[in-house]
Amino acid sequence: MIIVMQAEADQDQIQDVEAQLSRMGFTPHRIKGVLRTVIGAVGDPKIVYPTSLERLPGVDKVLPVTAPYQLVSRQVKPDDSLIRVGDTVIGGEALVVMAGPCAVESWDHLITVARQVKLSGASILRGGAFKPRTSPYSFQGLEHEGLKLLARAREETGLTIVTEVLTPQEVELVARYADIIQIGARNMQNFSLLREVGRCGKPVLLKRGLASTVEEWLMAAEYILAEKNYQVILCERGIRTFENSTRSTLDISSVPQIKQLSHLPVIVDPSHAGGSWRLVLPLSLAAIASGADGLMVEVHHKPAEAFCDGGQSLTPENFASMMSAAARVAAAVGRSLPVVC
Ligand code: PEP
Ligand code: MN
In this predicted model, what pLDDT tens digit does every residue of 20-40 receive, in sequence order? Predict the structure, then answer.
């Protein structure tokens, strides 16, 4: 349920309502809007929401939340959430591009790609140090060494870092190096991992599960917000359908759908969706036209030699052309995309 405070409600009145909610067995989440504060009260859905709360000083109204998710819902927070990472704001007018290799392979390779994506306007460097691979015999990532290389690339380029964590036990380690913690598609419903990243204090990029509905995806985000980490970025990366000519099916409609249902920013990963470098440009343009807040794109300077996902990685030159085309579509839909070269 949501408790909407009056615009003139003072701090004491807000705290009194929160204390009353805690006594009733709810966890209060204070959400400061532009005009007024609302308090999201989460707890056992079987507790019938008490209209008597409307009698407390400073309360305007008490509303039920009709969706199964609460804190991620636009009903609870009508304004878009902005996630700040260094100088970058995700969810605002400017689109944000995260780019880099699928996996961190070596220092020379990482710094080469990092410098090139930065030149083309990316502000966040992606790269997996812990890789979730379908086969246990495939390259699993450089692990801790990979995290150190990412941190060094941040120092050299000024790019912030997004990288994946696979287990709750490794969250503390990954959070020490990463600016954004990535939860991959295969772990979207790993609830203990979601709770742990909810407690780590870093922004979280939550990819959509391979076979998850939009509602399940938002419920997964709710786990993170329920731990009082409100810095969640959603990432549509395609879902598994009967269609097998592409690696996954990019569910472009999830972007405007999420925008209606939730206040969280949503970006698109055209690389894992299409599974082919040839599809990355058109899918990126479609993503921007549909209202996405940014892109996550795989780039490799020698795709034929990549340890993983070479077939879907753009060369730095193709990435630069994609960024120019993306900037034109962004302008057409009232957004901006910095393209440096
Ligand atoms: C990735 O971004 O490296 C990745 C493994 O993607 P996904 O979880 O979407 O498959
Ligand atoms: Mn990949």
Answer: 999 988 999 999 888 899 999
Q: Which pTM was predicted?
A: 0.95
Task: Report the chain's terminal Cα–Cα distance, integer Å.
Answer: 49
Where does CATH 3.20.20.70 sit in the chain? Answer: 83-332
* Dist. CA 128–CA 4, nearest whole Å: 42
Q: Which helix (H) or strand (E) holds 99?
A: strand 96-100
CB 161 within 8 A of CB 178: yes
**Ligand 1 centroid, distance to 4 Cα (angstroms):** 39
The residue length of the chain stands at 341
Is the pLDDT at 52 greater than 90, yes or no?
no
Please tell me the distance from the alpha carbon of residue 311 to that of residue 324, in angstroms, as a whole number: 22
What's the CATH architecture for 83-332?
Answer: Alpha-Beta Barrel (3.20)
**Does ligand 1 come within 6 angstroms of the Cβ of 208?**
no
For the Cβ of 98 lying below 6 angstroms from any atom of ligand 1, the answer is: no
CATH for 2-63? Answer: 3.30.70.1140
Give pLDDT tens digits for 249-271.
999 999 999 999 999 999 999 99
Parts of the chain belonging to CATH 3.30.70.1140: 2-63
